[in-house]
Amino acid sequence: MGVASPVGLTPGGCAASHAAMRSRLLQRNLRVDPPLALTGQGMFIHDSNGRAVIDGSGGAAVACLGHGHPRVLEAMRAQMDRLSYAHTALYSCEPAEQLADLVLEGEPGGLTHLYLCSSGSEGVEAALKLARQYFVEIGQPNRRKFIARRQSYHGNTLGALAAGGNMMRRAIYQPILSDAFHHVSPCYAYRDRRDDESDAQYVARLAAELEAEFQTLGPDTVAAFIAEPVVGATLGCVAALPGYFQAVRAICDRHGALLILDEVMSGMGRTGTMHAWEQEGVPPDIQVVAKGLGGGYQPIGGIMIGGRIIEALRDGSGGFMHGHTYQAHPIASAAALAVQQVIREEGLLDNVRAMGALLEQRLTERLGNHRHVGDIRGRGLFWCAEFVADRASKAVFDPALKLNERIKREAYERGLACYPMAGTIDGKRGDHVILSPPYIATAADIEAIVARFGDAVDAAIASLPPGG
Ligand code: PLP
């Protein structure tokens, strides 16, 4: 706290000129040097602007235990003293084995094995490749296509990007993306359910669209359907309507395709149940997890795999034709093991549900009637506000105004970190902001987050040019 700004950084992280910039690290934005995050404690990050910022989004829905949790730090130190690395061609390691046992213990969906990698994108790549290998192993090598959803995000590596439907992220890479991926509509009732449709009719329409896509592609050429149970980084906390995932599961089963659920953002407790799909009652064949698995203490992701896929590999070639140098890394596994132990032993899912209900209530009170807030939605401690220029027409703001970035900056000025999204709405950039605090948040934290967020929204909108 109270640390002086290094040369070249100005309050709010905006460099005065290119000449003043000093970072040789390739940042997200080459025109702005961000402040340095110096220390983290509990809900707060202390930075080089001398600010203590409440981490209202846990980074990008990552820091589920907040920062500096002593038990996780101790587990990492202890593992470092024992063993930092051993290659998986020869060895397994204790923390990875224990982590697999813990996350699969009492697992309600019949998922029997865990593969560990280093990020969400790696997890998605592994899921796609495993689905493909499964069908080769069982004698259906013609299954090479995947169906995903528009307005979804599955990661930035080429396979994951091809699966995702976020047009802005895909645009410049489109010519080098695989043609094995095909997209249907997401379940996005706020914008896509017609006024004359009931929820059930809308779900039936989406199911018919998916069925038609299977027929167009040839049902026996489709390996898997992949979706986020609660859409994160493209639309902001959009859960499906009741019955949607049951309909999806039935279609996949009818055509012998696998269901891959990407819970990188929404999983490991974020939505109030350990797995987001539990609230749909529909287990996947392969589930991708990452952010909440290690809580940001180490880069770690993974896939949980259903028994029939493991059996097919065991009876067939004998192994997964895939792997990475750092898979099942001992220190990353030790960190994730401690994170998962803390979540379970401290009953943090109860807190996610209780604080999530408070967050919903306070957000609705503060912004529910705001003329530029079109929708407030979410589950557990995973909430989003979608901003509109006009509530009646749901028209988006001029994308050049970058309202969501303005909200992020105004929130930071008030000591709050939130997570802005630029989802694509009718081909245009929308304005969404996610609040996804750590599972350790108290009622006072939630009150502070919503108070600062509400003021930031008002200030950002007031900063728009007249008529904006
Ligand atoms: N899948 C989903 C649903 C995500 O939200 C993300 C990241 O936000 C990813 C995959 C990619 O994860 P990573 O950034 O760790 O590669």
From TrEMBL:
Signal peptide: none annotated. One of its GO terms (molecular function) is pyridoxal phosphate binding. Keywords: Aminotransferase, Pyridoxal phosphate, Transferase. Its cofactor is pyridoxal 5'-phosphate. GO terms for cellular component: cytosol. Pfam families: Aminotran_3 (PF00202). InterPro entries: Aminotrans_3 (IPR005814), PyrdxlP-dep_Trfase (IPR015424), PyrdxlP-dep_Trfase_major (IPR015421), PyrdxlP-dep_Trfase_small (IPR015422). NCBIfam families: PRK07483.1 (NF005685). Belongs to the class-III pyridoxal-phosphate-dependent aminotransferase family. This is Aspartate aminotransferase family protein. It comes from Falsiroseomonas algicola.
